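Translate structure to sequence.
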């Protein structure tokens, strides 16, 4: 049986391990800059995001990190899924389904207009899974990102 529960501060090492595992899966094993202190601060001090842990037989087998965004078109907040990860040994046991349904329920309870996330275009198993859960790909939209030196330059341009 899968249990989904809110993450606590004692889960930060597990969350960081899952983040690193996810980065490796997404072919970016050296991209994680976060450490336990940063995750603890973001999740439990600044509370800019939330996390849930999926457990089976008392062991953590997955997690999701999410936060609220806002739609001017609907005039309501939305729920944005930043990361969802299930350990390889727990894949195929509906842990991902439980995590996604749990977050959808949070979105409904909080009167969110949308529940959305991004998925890598090469990750066909994830795309198929999300589609099977009722998600629709928005092909017209692209994610744009400014980081590091480019972010600093843009900030100076004002």
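Result:
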């Amino acid at each position: 049986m899968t249990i989904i529960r809110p993450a606590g501060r004692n889960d930060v090492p597990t969350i960081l391990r899952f983040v690193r595992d996810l980065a490796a899966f997404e072919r970016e094993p050296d991209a994680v800059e976060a450490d336990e202190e940063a995750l603890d601060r973001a999740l439990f001090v600044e509370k800019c995001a939330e996390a849930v842990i999926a457990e089976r037989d008392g062991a953590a087998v997955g997690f999701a990190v999410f936060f609220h965004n806002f739609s001017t078109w609907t005039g309501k907040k939305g729920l944005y899924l930043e990361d969802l990860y299930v350990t390889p040994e727990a894949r195929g046991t509906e842990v991902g389904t439980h995590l996604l349904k749990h977050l959808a329920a949070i979105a409904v309870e909080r009167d969110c207009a949308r529940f959305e996330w991004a998925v890598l275009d090469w990750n066909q198993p994830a795309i198929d899974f999300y589609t099977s859960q009722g998600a629709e790909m928005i092909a017209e939209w692209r994610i744009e990102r400014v980081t590091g030196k480019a972010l600093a330059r843009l900030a100076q341009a004002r």
